[in-house]
Write a structure and sequence with these properties.
The protein has 368 residues and is α+β, with helices and mostly antiparallel strands. It is 37% helix and 11% strand.
Length: 368
């Protein structure tokens, strides 16, 4: 077994991931590249079956990028044909090898991320085309299945990747746990978005092959209360009525709203929700749901903000989503960054009727 050694890359144009093995070479080897080009899928399949690791061959990365990923990264192209992607070369990755590493000594092999900008380099044994996949897999198996002590870097990566969820939260205000709750509550879309994001070497390929246009689209609120982004091919952002009511509330308040003051907006939120529901009288259950949103000690508002973020993140990249979601620092007003001159209401929310609350009348609509 050939012992791996650590090599360093600098200024990498992507965030490395620990379940990716990437082909490298100090200088171009036409024989090996021909074999890899013909058999990389077999090697990728076998390594993923055994160790849940993907094998990446830089000239074929563009084949892995789906049209859905391209539209998520660059939604301006939504509804229009995507331009073809062209292959990159392994040399474009090797340009980032640290000058302290002897590039000439790197025979064909593969690298795996350890930590920061350090990678383990596995030199491949001699092989012919018929035994390529078998030889590479067997040599790597000897390495991963041997008993060994972990390095400090590997321990650090393992500790950083562990996610520890407290079993019991203290009594916090919604504002105190806003950022954490929003991320924790996005379970429905975490897996899909992680698939749409291009991590590892694929991210480098995307950055060099396309230039995302991160200008926000105009937003149109239609007469039937749909959210349309016309500059993204009339993309529709879908939300459940109560989530949409919260979103419309914040759209109507470009200055932002402090969570601790949400109860002051209870009546407005109830009226928006009633309007979206066709004007029907709200049920007791609906009123309670709105009360929960307005309660600064309840995390319902955080859950609704998470659903808003999900709705946009399902259709566009993180940078663009930041323009549309409800966000803000702790103890500060939460707001939507999108400039309001980009927002058009085809139909305004009608004025809320002003009804005096009569404490002696049990049928008095107290939410007005």
């Amino acid at each position: 077994m050939i012992e791996p050694r650590t090599i360093t890359f600098i200024n990498l144009p992507f965030r490395p991931i620990d379940n990716e093995m990437t082909y490298v070479e100090g200088s171009y080897d036409p024989r090996v590249n021909g074999i890899v080009a013909r058999h990389w899928r077999e090697l990728d399949t076998e390594m993923h079956r055994r160790w849940r690791i993907h094998f990446c061959y830089v000239p074929t990365i563009h084949e892995r990028v789906s049209e859905e990923q391209l539209r998520w990264i660059n939604p301006v192209r939504h509804g229009r044909p995507m331009p073809p992607l062209h292959p990159l070369r392994t040399a474009q990755l090797m340009r980032h090898l640290s000058p302290q590493c002897d590039r000439a000594s790197l025979r064909p092999g593969m690298i795996s991320w350890i930590s920061k900008e350090n990678f383990a380099y596995f030199e491949w044994p001699d092989f012919d085309e018929a035994t390529f996949v078998e030889r590479v897999v067997e040599e790597y198996r000897k390495y991963v299945e041997r008993p060994r002590d972990y390095t400090a870097d590997e321990i650090e990566v393992g500790m950083n990747s562990a996610f520890i969820r407290p079993s019991l939260y203290a009594r916090f205000m919604a504002d105190d746990t806003f950022r954490r709750d929003v991320l924790d509550l996005m379970n429905d879309i975490k897996i899909k978005v992680d698939q749409l994001r291009c991590h590892g070497v694929s991210e480098m390929a995307i950055k060099q092959l396309i230039q995302p246009d991160n200008r926000p689209s105009r937003m149109v609120i239609t007469a039937d209360w749909r959210i349309i982004l016309p500059d993204y091919g009339d993309m529709e952002i879908e939300m459940r009525p109560l989530v949409k009511a919260v979103y419309f509330l914040f759209l109507r308040h470009p200055e932002g709203i402090f969570f601790k003051d949400l109860f002051d907006n209870y009546a407005e939120l109830a009226w928006i929700y009633q309007t979206l529901r066709g004007g029907d009288e709200l049920t007791d259950k609906a009123r309670q749901s709105i009360s929960d949103i307005a309660n600064p000690f309840h995390n319902s508002i955080n859950e609704k903000c998470a659903r808003v973020r999900e709705a946009f993140l399902a259709k566009m990249n993180d940078a663009l989503t930041a323009q549309y979601m409800i966000d803000g620092e702790r103890a500060c007003a939460k707001a939507i960054l999108l400039p309001r001159e980009l927002v058009t209401w085809e139909r305004e929310i009608p004025p809320r009727p002003v009804i005096e609350y009569d404490p002696d009348d049990p049928n008095s609509p107290y939410y007005f």
